[in-house]
């Protein structure tokens, strides 16, 4: 069986592990490709599109959860960590997919969800059946309630998805869940919990998986010594490694054990932390003693703004230098409004501290996508410019399925067809994430635009036809053609993990150069920016045009050293 190349050589002949500057494509399996016409994407569907992924030119895929799940949270409620949801295929199908991807030089990264299980997991069922005081309850976080009859929760904490984060069970005890009620948090002080995840990591590593994306990596360990603080007290406590439930230093004891597992394989398995922590604490997760790499969501939260982009890039390169890991960049994933739409909306509303007041696009989603009217063409132009900027940065580039088509968010999903627990737990005060999880359009017509032979588990709007893979593949000016060309060139031009900013004389134009002379200019403004007699290798406005004398507004160009 052929396997992907494990090292990448830059122009100086230095070898670096593949993941340091990989282009990673996130697949949300239930919405990628449906091979059996049940409306749900599946593992054979991914295998059937292996050539598409190879032609796109990515180095790895990251699969969101495909494990057995009651789908209370889109699969992030895992009922069995070492199996495939029967609706998505079998373990044999999984092996066939890994073989097909490896044969095309594509690495495979899978999502691990260690903070919580599904309430359908055998352990949680056992815990409910065994009752208070049982060993089975020790694997989770069960407590007695407060108040005279214990009928009040142990604390007034609010879950990430809204609503209380303590749930009462039939015998009167309460359990803790950071997320939905159906996602009970595990007790990471329990040796069986620790041992079981090591078994899971080995299980997938033995099947040829190259790496892991660790869901909410900063939440696993907790200190729930009595008396529990109130939510207001929790919010006021510093997140300095000693917070009772967020980003505790002791979580790295878990990851040190995992690191030994990763390093026992040749090549070592990789991991990337989804850790929403203060920038100063990111290097702890990215350290080679811990998970090895961490997501950086700063660009995903930024507006299309030269100053903001420059500050974020500079800061994150400095942060990654302290851990020795490479940094990561991302604009879209399965949790946020797609960036082609975000950039067609007014700028993010921010508080005095500069932090976003809401998730960008969330207010627009509440209006059913009508207010304000999205500037679709402008949003796409800016998204293409931003993506070409990102793909030239040192470090790993994470892409989300559909962004290579310039796919916008779907805002008008009827309430009865929504699936995201945030919608239900907030009684619709938050619309949630279904709009970026609508199954992909592969063809311009057909019952689900080629996603499968029947319908799709989330409704696709008629305008999806415009973004169909078949249509874009035939159009050299399309976003798909731009991504294909950019990813191919990125491979050719890839070089040491560094950049130098060049003076442009304009606040709305950024220019940087990579160590081998690969130059990148992004015009965030609308006035064209004059170019010298440089040969343009690629422009986000028009992947075909190479004889440019200026960088048009809201455009990125790549100039390759001659
Ligand atoms: C982060 C995942 O990205 C999100 O989709 C999920 O809902 C939560 N973690 C809970 O697992």
Helix segment count?
Answer: 15
Shape estimate: globular
The major β-sheet equals: 7 strands, parallel
Ligand identities: 1-deoxynojirimycin
Task: Report the β-strand fraction as a percent range.
Answer: 5-15%
Looking across the biggest beta sheet, what order are the strands in? 10-9-5-4-3-12-11
Structural class: alpha/beta
Measured as a percent range, the helix fraction is 25-40%
Rg from alpha-carbon coordinates: 23 Å
Distance between the termini: 38 Å
Q: Count the E strands.
A: 19
Low-confidence stretches: none
Overall pLDDT score: 96
Which key terms come to mind for this protein?
562 residues, alpha/beta, seven-stranded parallel beta sheet, five-stranded antiparallel beta sheet, 15 helices, 19 strands, 25% helix, binds 1-deoxynojirimycin
Topology summary:
Layout: E1 7-9, E2 15-17, E3 23-27, H1 43-48, H2 50-56, E4 60-63, H3 91-103, E5 107-112, H4 122-130, E6 142-143, E7 166-168, E8 174-176, H5 191-206, E9 211-214, H6 231-236, H7 251-263, E10 270-273, H8 282-286, H9 306-323, E11 328-330, H10 339-342, H11 362-366, H12 376-390, E12 396-400, H13 421-425, H14 469-473, H15 479-493, E13 500-502, E14 509-513, E15 519-523, E16 529-530, E17 536-539, E18 550-551, E19 555-559
Parallel strand pairs: 3-4, 3-12, 4-5, 5-9, 9-10, 11-12
Antiparallel strand pairs: 1-2, 6-8, 7-8, 13-14, 14-15, 15-19, 16-18, 17-19
Helix pairs in contact: 5-7
């Amino acid at each position: 069986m052929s396997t992907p190349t494990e090292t990448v050589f830059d122009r100086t002949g230095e070898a670096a592990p593949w993941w340091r500057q990989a282009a990673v494509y996130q697949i949300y399996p239930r919405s990628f490709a449906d091979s059996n016409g049940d409306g749900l994407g599946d593992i054979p569907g991914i295998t059937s599109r292996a050539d598409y992924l190879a032609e796109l030119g990515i180095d790895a895929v990251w699969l969101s959860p495909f494990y057995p799940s009651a789908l209370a949270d889109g699969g992030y409620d895992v009922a069995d960590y070492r199996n495939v949801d029967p609706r998505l295929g079998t373990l044999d199908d999984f092996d066939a997919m890994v073989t097909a991807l490896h044969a095309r030089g594509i690495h495979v990264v899978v999502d691990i969800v260690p903070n919580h299980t599904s309430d359908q997991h055998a352990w949680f069922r056992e815990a409910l059946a065994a009752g208070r005081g049982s060993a089975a309850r020790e694997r989770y976080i069960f407590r007695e309630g407060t108040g005279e009859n214990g009928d009040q929760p142990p604390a007034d904490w609010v879950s990430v998805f809204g609503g209380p984060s303590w749930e009462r069970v039939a015998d009167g005890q309460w359990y803790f869940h950071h997320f939905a009620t159906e996602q009970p948090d595990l007790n990471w002080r329990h040796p069986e919990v620790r041992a079981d995840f090591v078994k899971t990591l080995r299980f997938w590593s033995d099947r040829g998986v190259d790496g892991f994306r660790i869901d909410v990596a900063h939440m696993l360990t907790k200190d729930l010594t009595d008396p529990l603080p109130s939510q207001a007290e929790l919010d006021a406590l510093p997140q300095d490694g000693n917070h009772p439930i967020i980003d505790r230093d002791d979580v790295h004891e878990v990851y040190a054990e995992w690191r030994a597992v990763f390093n026992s394989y040749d090549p070592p398995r990789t991991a990337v932390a989804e850790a929403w922590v203060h920038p100063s604490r990111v290097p702890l997760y990215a350290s080679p003693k811990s998970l090895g790499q961490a997501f950086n969501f700063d660009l995903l939260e930024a507006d299309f703004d030269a100053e903001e982009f420059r500050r974020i890039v500079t800061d994150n390169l400095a942060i990654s230098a302290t851990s020795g890991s490479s940094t990561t960049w991302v604009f879209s994933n399965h949790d946020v409004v797609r960036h082609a739409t975000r950039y067609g909306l007014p700028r993010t509303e921010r508080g005095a501290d500069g932090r976003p007041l809401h998730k960008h696009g969330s207010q627009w989603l509440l209006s059913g996508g009508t207010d304000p009217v999205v500037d679709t063409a402008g949003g796409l132009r800016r998204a293409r410019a931003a993506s070409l900027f990102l793909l030239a940065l040192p470090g790993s580039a994470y892409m989300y399925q559909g962004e290579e088509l310039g796919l916008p968010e779907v805002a008008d999903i009827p309430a009865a067809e929504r699936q995201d627990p945030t919608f239900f737990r907030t009684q619709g005060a938050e619309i949630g994430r279904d709009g970026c999880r609508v199954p992909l359009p592969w063809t311009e017509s057909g019952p689900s635009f080629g996603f499968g032979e029947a319908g799709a588990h989330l409704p696709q709007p008629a305008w999806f036809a415009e973004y169909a893979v078949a249509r874009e593949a035939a159009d050299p000016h399309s976003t798909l053609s731009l991504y294909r060309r950019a990813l191919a060139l990125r491979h050719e031009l890839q070089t040491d993990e560094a950049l130098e900013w060049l003076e442009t004389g304009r606040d709305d134009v950024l220019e940087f150069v990579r160590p081998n002379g690969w130059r990148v200019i992004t015009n965030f403004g609308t006035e064209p920016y004059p170019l010298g007699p440089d040969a343009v290798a690629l422009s986000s406005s028009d992947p075909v045009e190479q004889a440019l004398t200026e960088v048009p507004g809201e455009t990125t160009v790549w100039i390759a050293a001659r």
